[in-house]
Amino acid sequence: MLLSFARSRLRPNALPATAEPPAPTIDASALVDSIGRQASTLGREAAEVRGLIGDAQNASSEQAQAISALAVQMQQVTRSQDAIGAQTSASQASVDEARAAVEAIGTEVSGIVDTLHDVSEAAAQIAQIALQTRLVAFNASVEAKRAGDAGRGFSVVADAVKDLASRVEVSSKDIMRTIATLDARIDTLAKEIRHHDGDTNGQGAFQRALARVAGGVRQVDEAATQSRGICTALNGQMSRIESEMQQTGRMLDAATRRSETFLTISEHLIEVVAECGIATEDTRYIEAARAAAAELGRMFDEAIASGTISAEALFDEDYRPIANTNPPQHMTRFVPLADELCPRVQEPMLALSDKVVFCIAVDRNGYVAAHNRKYCQPQRGDLAWDTANSRYRRIFNDRTGLASARNSKPFLLQTYRRDMGGGKFVVMKEAAAPVQVDGRHWGAIRLAFHF
Q1: Helix, strand, coil distribution of the chain in percent, nearest 5
Q2: Is the model's pLDDT at 403 over the cut of 70?
Q3: What predicted TM-score, i.e. pTM, was given to this entire model?
Q4: CATH architecture for residues 283-450
Q5: Neighbouring C-beta atoms of residue 54, cutoff 10 Å
Q6: Are 312 and 376 in contact (CB under 8 A)?
Q7: Most confidently modeled range among 106-110, 173-177, 347-351
Q8: End-to-end CA distance of the chain
Q9: Phi, psi of 394, rounded to the nearest 5 degrees
Q10: CATH numeric code, 31-278
Q11: I need a surface site. Which of 131, 169, 321, 441 has the fewest CB within 10 A?
């Protein structure tokens, strides 16, 4: 119509008025409905994109944490390899010290062998002297017997000398046999600890054992050196991966902000359409949420007026954790009243349409004292089941939850993706209306429904 008016103002006077064709009529209701549907589609797609980006962010964050933990472990491995290298160096030095000590013992053994040889020679000389002494004593004994009574005393002495010489000879021979045995054993020991550079076949067993130990220490040191090199290379690669993942995280953050912009625009368009007075597919849910919020506010006002609860208790924000709950549940002073009044408003909303998912009352911080009955199941200790079925006494302070809880406009219409558990997600809409109690903003009614 504006275009037709502009054209009529610009048309030359010479042209007849009948030359301009009639302007097409515009169906405002159809136009608004079309805009609403397109905005709804845009919101749905934006919510899907935002959810997928959120999943990518979570996965990227988990991978970054895993890489960071792995980098720490690799650093610990590197330090361990350094310690192994230091220990192998010390072990090699200890082997060298042992070899030196054994060689010193070998030198001492050689001295002992020489001494034993000297002792053996002395024992042999003693045995020879004893033999000679025994022969002399024997001759003296013979001569004493020839002398008769005069030589009887000398004969006794000669016999005693002979016996003594015989025992000395026997002892000397025992010493020589013992020294011979000891000499053989010491010689064997000397051969065992003997060291020949570059000739393992000529070395003794002890030296060969030391050589094997030294070889094992060298292999450990070489393996530790190779491992340190690999760890160093991996540390560098993980540093680059961590840097790239951080860059990816920043890009995902930027993408999230941009998708948030699209989602906000679509929600604003839907609100504009809803406020124009023309009914859309969302109108019944918006009106139902506003009516439920007004009804709950009236009930809370009556409870305060009757003294059932104080305004201070109704606005209690002291969320006391319930022990042994996961996801965490909390208690407040207005829970008993919420358990009594909220179901009267919430449960009838579930019958509004088969598209309705839930209807809950939340305070300004997203705390749900009483959820719909089907979501008020006691926790079983199974996190996945409890997350889906024990949704009462919990705080939902995500983007959507807080926006609905703190909205003070007549209504707020949002689009978001809800986690249904088990990797399943559903995109839905939510109409929220503020709950006013005693002239103050208590919270909101949240009515969620499928597209």
Answers
A1: 70, 10, 20
A2: yes
A3: 0.55
A4: 2-Layer Sandwich (3.30)
A5: 17
A6: no
A7: 347-351
A8: 35
A9: -120, 160
A10: 1.10.287.950
A11: 321
List C-alpha distances in Å: 278 to 20, 268, 381, 448: 32, 16, 48, 21
- Residue 184 structure tokens: 């053989």
Q: Could you tell me where in the chain the CATH 1.10.287.950 domains are found?
A: 31-278
- Please check the confidence at residue 260 and state whether its pLDDT lies above 70: no
Q: Given this model, what pLDDT does residue 71 score?
A: 72
Cβ neighbours of 172 (radius 10 Å): 21
Q: What are the tokens at 234?
A: 């991996």
Band the pLDDT of 258: cuts 50, 70, 90.
low
**Alpha-carbon distance 342 to 121, whole Å?**
118
Decide: residue 168, CB within 10 A, 0-12 exposed, 13-18 middle, 19+ buried.
middle
Lookup result for tokens 């070889």: 215
Strand order in the sheet with 412-421: 356-363, 440-450, 424-437, 412-421
Nearest to 404 by CA among 349, 439, 357, 447: 447
Q: Please write down the long-range contacts of 390-393, taking CB distance under 8 Å and 24 or more positions apart.
A: 390/325, 390/327, 390/329, 392/329, 392/368, 393/322, 393/325, 393/329, 393/330, 393/331, 393/335, 393/368, 393/369
Tokens representing residue 27 in the block: 């169906």
Residue 154 CA to residue 140 CA, distance in Å, equals 8
Domain with CATH 3.30.450.20 in the chain: 283-450
Q: List residues bridging with 376 in a β-sheet.
A: 390
Distance (Å) of CA 190 to CA 43, 98, 193, 396, 422 = 94, 15, 5, 85, 77
- pLDDT tens figures, 77-131: 777 767 777 777 777 777 777 767 766 776 766 677 777 677 777 767 776 776 7
> Strand pairing partners for 450?
428
